[in-house]
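Suppose a colleague, Dr. K., hands you the sequence of a protein chain of 172 amino acids and asks what its three-dimensional shape might be. Before reaching for any lab equipment, you can write down a predicted structure in token form. Begin with the sequence itself:
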Amino acid sequence: MPGFTACSILVFAGTLAGSLLPGRAAAQTAAVGHAATGPTFGDDYLYRFGLNVVGGAERRNGQFGVGADLAVLYFPATRRSAGLGEVSGSEFFWPLASAYGAYHFGQTGRGLEPFAQAGVAVSFAGGVGWDLGGGADWWLTPRVGVRTAIRDRFARLPLLGPVSVEGGIVFR
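The predicted structure, expressed as tokens, is then:
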């Protein structure tokens, strides 16, 4: 049952991460949500370019945070020449779930806020990989901002997985 194992890993990672942060009484603890989309560059001969849609939440305590998100990577049908013939691939949707830890550089919650994150990604189609990335939140108001990020959603080091460039909103 690969689905059961994948869910167990995410539940365990989320529970562990949530238990490491102090409760709501601690200063600067905040919940932050995000939604983004953008191009995805695949690591496969057939699937080189696609689209990424993601949404999630992060619990922050000062500069540290733990979060989880759901992403769907879409790759259109392709047809490529390969040596003596032609190779084709059907379109496919690749749903992923991630649990990660994040570090936000500088003063959090105001102006430009760069971040780095790393965690585990689980494919609903089977398999586990690393979720590595970074970006910046630019807070336009105390509650709403713009997010840009670059993430490798399913790295199996030392190889990279599909790399996504994201743009969207961040809110609290």
